[in-house]
Structure formats: structure tokens, C-alpha cells
Design goal:
The chain is of the alpha/beta class. It contains 9 helices and 14 strands. Helices cover 32% and strands 23% of the residues. The longest helix has 17 residues. The chain starts with 5 loop residues before the first strand and ends with a helix.
């Protein structure tokens, strides 16, 4: 991989693609050139990056040669078709969709958790689901110290996780509800305004949603813990951005709140916000637009001294998607640890 790679963003005009673009600029990512790809509908749009105007190319017709790293955020159906093409043309694809996460030969990577896995790639690296990423960033230092046995997690996920149209639908439907008007929902099967929907993605056998099973499958793969117990309940709430999670984690030995805080403070990508006396705990209002996973409300479980309960919050468009992808690219440039 060259020190200054030729980079592409596929799905550059979407919410995650735009966030990738801003993060590349914020983090002064070293690159030789940047190309932007999207559907024919968005092709021709002008985007400014580091003071230079870039024109969005039509993914269907563009020449995809001479690209070193391709950051994909255009949807699973697009990735399934085009990610292999980019890989065959010589790029390393970092895919932010669900297209390849369960493929056994494709690394599924959170740099703070399983960095070295990315170097076994064969042209494609998968970016995990947003809710899985923030949970595992918080759990990894605790697992390293005490051995993770079981997880029970409930997520409270922002509508931006369903795309920019879902976010706009929440805003518009909230205004309609306040004005006493009916609203024709397109993105949600029930009203999202002033509501909580225990339904993200499709329902699978046994009554689990696919979002819930993603957390099971991905946790076991990323942590390399095929037998670890994981139970998830995933809920969509009327928050624009930022996912929150209530986590019960059981370990091989007891962990005190003090030890958990110490482990978290030493770990990358985590900020502890945990002072009940001062009403300090993680909230999406502090997480949006920032990079850390915020952890707090830490308690030893009342029924199991080997278990901790905590609350974690993160910006789902940043660490849950775009930032994690850019971090993978940064670590690729550094190479394997020696």
C-alpha cells in the first residue's frame, strides 16, 4: 500500500459518504488523489474537498482503475456488485454495508478491537454494524481483563441509522403530529414521532429481527468468541443521530466499577462520563459530531457479582460507520504490528 494512496468514496453523496469526506479532511488523511462515485442521479454534482472542487462520477460507467483504497457506503446491493470489481481492479475495499459481514473469509474489523484481522483481507474488509461497533469498543478492555461470558444488550437507535430520508420523515411527522395532522409514513411501518419501535430490519425465525441477530453474529466474529452468549433487543427511537445502549456484561471474574473505569480510561476511543452525584452520564447530545464511545451509569449487577451494567452512547454516522472505515484505512497504511 503506498504511503499516499489513491482513494475513492463510493456512495459519496449519501449521509455516510459525506461524513467520510469530512472525516478524511478533519484527520488530514494522507492521500495522492480522491475520486467520488455515486449513482447516475448524483453524477455531475460538485463537491469541495480541501479547497478543490471534485465532480461526482457515475459508478456504472466510470473507469475504476488506479485506485488503492475504496470506501463503500452505497448500500448492500451496490456493494455486492461493485466491491468485487474494485477489488479485482487492485483496490482494497472497505465496505460499510451488510453485504460481506458474515462471509468467513472477509475480515470484519473494529480497529480498537481486532486490528490485526484486517491484514488477512483478500481485497475486501467489512465494516460492522453501528450498534455492534460501539458496544465492542466498550467491552474489549473489560474482556481482556476479565474474560467475557455473556452479553444482554438493549439498543435505542437514532433514525439516521435508517438513512437521511428516515431522519427527514421523523422531523416532518413530528411537526405533523404537533399540528394535529395525519402523516403518510414511507420509511417506518408505524409512526416514529413520539414513539419507540422494537423493530429494526426484517423479522427472522424465532421472532428476532435481523438487526438483533447482526449483533450476535458480528460480536462472535469480531471478538473471536464463537460460543459467547449474546441477546439483543433493538429499538428505533425518535432521535435524529446517536445510538444509546444498555449493556449487561458477565465475566469470568468480578469487575468493580473502579476497575472498569480504569480499564476504559486506558483504552483507545472511550470516554468515561460517570458521576451520578453531578448528574453526569452519556447522552447523545454530547456524542453527536464527536468520535468517542461514551460510557457511564456503571453498576455491579445486583444478582450476579460477576456482571456489570453500563450505558454507552456514540455517533452512529461517525464511529458507527464513517470514522470506523477511515480508521481501518489509516491502520492499513501503518501495516501489521511487529
Amino acid at each position: 500500500m503506498p504511503k499516499n494512496p489513491r482513494v475513492a468514496i463510493v456512495g459519496a453523496t449519501g449521509a455516510v459518504g459525506q461524513t467520510i469526506l469530512s472525516i478524511l479532511e478533519e484527520r488530514h488523511f494522507s492521500l495522492d488523489s480522491l475520486r467520488l462515485f455515486a449513482s447516475a442521479r448524483s453524477a455531475g454534482n460538485a463537491v469541495v474537498f480541501r479547497g478543490e472542487t471534485l465532480v461526482v462520477e457515475d459508478l456504472e460507467t466510470a473507469d475504476i482503475q488506479n485506485i488503492d483504497i475504496a470506501l463503500f457506503s452505497a448500500g448492500a446491493s451496490v456493494s455486492k456488485v461493485f466491491a468485487p470489481r474494485f477489488a479485482e481492479a487492485g483496490a482494497v475495499v472497505i465496505d460499510n454495508t451488510s453485504a460481506f459481514r458474515n462471509e468467513p473469509d472477509i475480515p470484519l474489523v473494529v480497529p480498537e478491537v481486532n486490528r490485526e484481522a484486517m491484514f488477512a483481507h483478500q481485497g475486501i474488509i467489512a465494516n460492522p454494524n453501528c450498534s455492534t461497533i460501539q458496544m465492542l469498543v466498550a467491552l474489549k478492555p473489560l474482556h481482556d481483563a476479565a474474560g467475557l461470558k455473556r452479553i444482554i444488550v438493549s439498543t435505542y437507535q437514532a433514525v439516521s441509522g435508517a438513512g437521511s430520508r428516515a431522519r427527514q420523515e421523523m422531523l416532518d411527522s413530528t411537526r405533523a403530529a404537533l399540528d394535529g395532522h395525519a402523516f403518510d409514513y414511507q420509511k417506518f411501518v408505524h409512526p416514529i414521532a413520539f414513539n419507540a419501535l422494537p423493530h429494526i430490519d426484517v423479522f427472522l425465525e424465532g421472532g428476532w429481527t435481523k438487526e438483533e441477530m447482526k449483533m450476535v453474529w458480528e460480536t462472535r466474529k469480531i471478538m473471536d468468541l464463537p460460543e459467547v452468549g449474546v441477546t439483543a433487543t433493538c429499538v428505533r427511537i425518535p432521535v435524529a443521530s446517536g445510538h444509546s445502549e444498555s449493556v449487561y456484561a458477565e465475566f469470568d471474574r468480578p469487575l468493580s466499577v473502579t476497575e472498569a473505569h480504569s480499564l476504559w480510561r486506558k483504552a483507545p476511543g472511550i470516554e468515561v462520563v460517570d458521576d451520578p452525584a453531578e448528574n453526569r452520564y452519556p447522552m447523545v447530545t454530547q456524542a453527536v459530531g464527536t468520535d468517542p464511545v461514551y460510557v457511564g451509569r456503571t453498576r455491579v449487577d445486583l444478582s450476579n457479582p460477576h456482571a456489570l451494567n453500563f450505558w454507552c452512547v456514540s455517533d452512529n454516522l461517525r464511529k458507527g460507520a464513517a470514522l470506523n472505515a477511515v480508521q481501518i484505512a489509516e491502520e492499513l497504511l501503518k501495516g501489521p504490528a511487529h
